[in-house]
Write a structure and sequence with these properties.
InterPro entries: Arg_MeTrfase (IPR025799), PRMT_dom (IPR055135), SAM-dependent_MTases_sf (IPR029063). Keywords: Methyltransferase, S-adenosyl-L-methionine, Transferase. GO terms for molecular function: histone methyltransferase activity; protein-arginine N-methyltransferase activity. With about 375 residues, this protein is α+β, with helices and mostly antiparallel strands. It has helices at about 25-35, 40-50, 50-65, 65-70, 85-90, 105-115, 155-165, 185-215, 220-235, 265-270; strands at about 10-15, 75, 95-100, 120-125, 135-140, 165-175, 175-185, 240, 250-260, 270-275, 280-295, 300-310, 320-330, 335-345, 355-365, 375-380. The strands form 3 sheets. Strands 7, 8, 9, 11, 12 and 13 form a 6-stranded antiparallel β-sheet that branches. The radius of gyration is 23 Å and the shape is globular. Residues about 1-20 have low confidence and may be disordered.
């Protein structure tokens, strides 16, 4: 999959790291309930296993580079059903340590045995940060990417495992990642706006009912209801499978990194400026966000056949794309310059979820510019 220009952006990072894994049993239970619980069900695993782009990228990255895996020790962080670990074993790995935080570990053992790899694949159940494996590894494989690349914070245990277990010159699969943002004229905008207006209308009718039936005036709560619905429908990111023609300008990289060099601080808080040229006359009513990853191996052990996994539209993956509404919209013309900055941070109540702040203005071809706007979103 090919995405549009990734030029004209600059990125810096700000420290705001998360401690390595939940510390107490209470924290562990809460994290498990909020996040890991669903990964223990096959229905969730099936959702990922039937994602053809995802599966093709990992399968080709591992099996088409079997020379990189032959006789090597591999660590699979977050193995799920164990498929990546089995591929690594099929590629000739001497030993594969497959780490899984949920009871899906039992199914991963079953699957490894059913595919004749029980003597190579060692499945360990628990948090990566709290387990010990008996040797250093040559390669770490992991499917850690979440919505908008960084939602779920699953990269944290991968980086921790890298620092603790990866041999010098060892490789990470994937090795590189980019987070992209693009201006949209999205079909989803009118749907969400209509839903918001309907919710405001239905609350007004409900207020009439409460007065007539229960002699209670709830009008004082009108602004609360309005804000609640607006925050969810217009200021929360929405999963979407975008069509290519909904992208109306350059897709620009707002954050890119090498997994072998990144720190938890790097991925915890991101500040980035961006500049994107508008391609068509349209209504700018949203921003779209997605990611690309590459499997290049390491400088000491480069992949002979590098692979790219792109979630850019119109590719269809279980990640989809994230859509951030611009309300009210802005009229744009071909050639207009969209400039701005983003701030992406982790939510304090749940570090696996994100806040995104986008500040932007549009400069017309005649040199005039719109007022600068700032919109704050949640990625839940």
């Amino acid at each position: 999959h090919v995405h549009q220009s990734m030029s004209n952006s600059s990125t810096s990072v700000v420290a705001n790291a998360r401690p390595e894994g939940p510390k107490t049993e209470e924290e562990k239970d809460l994290d498990f309930a909020n996040y890991f619980h669903s990964y223990g069900f096959l229905y969730h695993q099936k959702d990922m296993l039937q994602d053809r782009a995802r599966m093709d990228a990992y399968r080709m990255a591992i099996l088409n580079n079997a020379d990189n895996f032959k006789d090597k020790v591999v660590l699979d962080v977050g193995t799920g059903s164990g498929v990546l670990a089995i591929w690594a074993a099929q590629a000739g790995a001497r030993r594969v340590y497959a780490i899984e935080a949920t009871s899906m570990a039992t199914n991963a053992r079953r699957l490894a045995a059913a595919n004749g790899m029980q003597d190579v694949v060692v499945v360990l159940e628990g948090y990566m940060e709290q387990l010990n494996i008996p040797e250093k590894v040559d390669i770490i494989i992991s499917e850690w990417m979440g919505y908008f690349l960084l939602r779920e914070s699953m990269l944290d245990p991968v980086l921790g495992a890298r620092d603790k277990y990866l041999k010098p010159g060892g490789a990470l699969y994937p090795s590189h990642a980019q987070l992209l943002l693009a201006p949209l004229c999205s079909q989803l905008y009118s749907q969400r706006l209509s839903e918001y207006e309907e919710e405001v209308y239905s609350w007004a009718r409900f207020g009439e009912y409460m007065r007539a039936q229960n002699q209670i005036d709830i009008g004082v709560l009108d602004p609360v209801w309005d804000k609640e619905q607006h925050d969810y429908l217009m200021n929360t990111a929405h999963w979407c499978q975008l069509h290519a023609d909904e992208v109306i300008g350059d897709a620009v990289s707002i954050f890119e990194f090498e997994v072998g060099a990144a720190t938890i601080e790097d991925v915890s808080t991101i500040r980035s400026s961006f500049s994107a040229r508008i391609h068509v006359a349209a209504e700018l009513n949203a921003f779209g966000g997605w990611f690309d990853c590459q499997f290049k191996g390491s400088s000491a052990s480069p992949a002979a056949l590098p692979v790219e996994l792109s979630t850019a539209p119109p590719s269809e993956t279980h990640w989809g794309q994230q859509v951030f509404m611009v309300h009210p919209p802005e009229a744009v013309e071909s050639g207009d310059l969209l400039e701005g900055a983003i701030l992406c941070t982790r939510q304090k109540q749940n570090h696996r979820l994100l806040h995104l702040q986008v500040t932007f203005k549009i400069t017309r071809l005649d040199g005039t510019a719109t007022d600068e706007r700032t919109i704050k979103y949640k990625i839940d």
